[in-house]
Amino acid sequence: MRGELANRFTSGSQKAGNVTEAWGADNFYCPNCSSPKLDWLKAGTEAIDYRCPKCKFEYQLKSQRAAIRNSINDGAYRSMMEKIRNDEAPNFYFLQYDFATWMVRNLLLVPYFAFPASAIIKRPPLAPTARRAGWVGCNFDLRHIPADARISIVTEKQITPLNEVRAQFKKVKPLKELSVKERGWTLDVLNGVRSLGKKEFTNTDAYTLAGQLEKLHPDNRHIRDKIRQQLQVLRDAKLLLHLGSGVWRLP
Q: pTM, whole model, 2 decimals?
């Protein structure tokens, strides 16, 4: 990254924000189409850092020095939930950098249509003594995002070829065509069947997920029926193969 850009700032967060965003402007391409570049938007554009000049997909960059693990800080809880419910969330890049060398260590892409509401974790409100007393933030819990939609672009400084990134993005893109309400169920069921740890599984195996899905969707009283329905949705999206007689395989 162009570390010399940090010299213009005194705040550590400003240094990191400007250096990493400039790197994104220099290196990001659109995974959704053939555009080799993304437009870097003006500072102050709320919740969006880049836009594809060709397909208009929008992206936000979250950068940190710490390793990318299960939980990543985000902004206001209510705002993020509204964006998901209204299908207005951007695609997210999660970047880990080395501050001493200004090197990118890891970079993960999660498409906006792969965020179920279950992945947004509400934080406690700020204390009354805080400058923004009562403000409620949120974290992303990456464990609630199916592995299919966590697309690695850089892994320990090793770059994934562009064609592989675009192929993986295209693989999960059928999720975009589902309604927001349906998509949340589909993502939670896909994440659940992957957690079974089996390449092939049965309806009976999938029914063992009923307890956790009931907690995520407490308004639904027909969990098994919904699981069967979502397995069919995943089949139609080519994210599951139906082998017949209630037997399924992850591709």
A: 0.92
